[in-house]
Amino acid sequence: MTDTGSNEESWLGHTIIQRYYIERELAQGSLFTVYRATDQENKRDVALKVLRIPMTPDRPEAQNWSTDLEQVSQWSHHHFLPVKDIGAQEGTLYIVEPLMSKSSFFDHLQENLISASEAMRLSLQILGALEALHKVGRYHLNLTPKNLYLIDNAIGLPQI
After folding, report:
1. Fewest C-beta in 10 Å: which of 12, 46, 56, 101?
2. What is the pLDDT of residue 3?
3. How many Å apart are CA 160 and CA 77, to the nearest integer?
4. How far is CA 127 from the centre of its chain?
5. pTM (predicted TM-score)
6. Which residues contact 51 (CB under 8 A, 6 or more apart)?
7. pLDDT at residue number 24
8. How do residues 19-31 score in pLDDT, each as one tens digit?
9. pLDDT higher for 16 or 3?
10. Measured over all CA atoms, what is the biggest interatomic distance in the chain, rounded to whole angstroms?
11. Rounded CA gap, 80 and 72, in Å?
């Protein structure tokens, strides 16, 4: 990125680390802004999550986030999106994950696309994933139906 500082809005239309071209903002939460980006090296669309806390010496919590995210990126589970890349650009921490094109669990619930028995089956998957996360001493700090996505597994059933 060129001379844009750490102002998030200035990231649009730029390429960071000569790899991720940032196309548009997808969502904004209290901790992260999520962008749709193109991984120019692998020729695929990705979700680029930018930590909204600037990493400066006077903000030690940003350094803690950096350490936490580095540890999380090394952990994997079949019900969690894999972290494809993690890094910092001009004092701002970012994470790259696969771009999810399916609807969220929230969308399916709102549109009554999930039966009660299916919601229970999917809830058990969520609980299993959280149990695995807790066993390694980690916690999910932003678990909401909008952050859960459904994909079809190998036999065509929805899974979280």
Report:
1. 101
2. 36
3. 11
4. 19
5. 0.74
6. 31, 32, 62, 65, 69, 92, 93, 94, 95
7. 95
8. 999 999 998 887 7
9. 16
10. 53
11. 11
Tokens of 41: 């090296």
pLDDT tens profile 103-153: 788 888 888 888 889 989 999 999 998 898 888 887 777 788 888 888 887
Contacts of 47 (CB under 8 A, 6+ apart): 26, 34, 35, 36, 37, 96, 97, 98, 99, 100
Q: Report pLDDT digits (tens) over 25-48.
A: 998 887 789 999 999 999 999 999
Q: Is 76 helix (H, G, I), strand (E, B) or coil?
A: coil
Amino acid letter, 24: R
Q: Which of 117, 124, 126, 125 is nearest to 144 (CA)?
A: 126
Other Cβ atoms less than 10 A from the Cβ of 44: the count is: 12
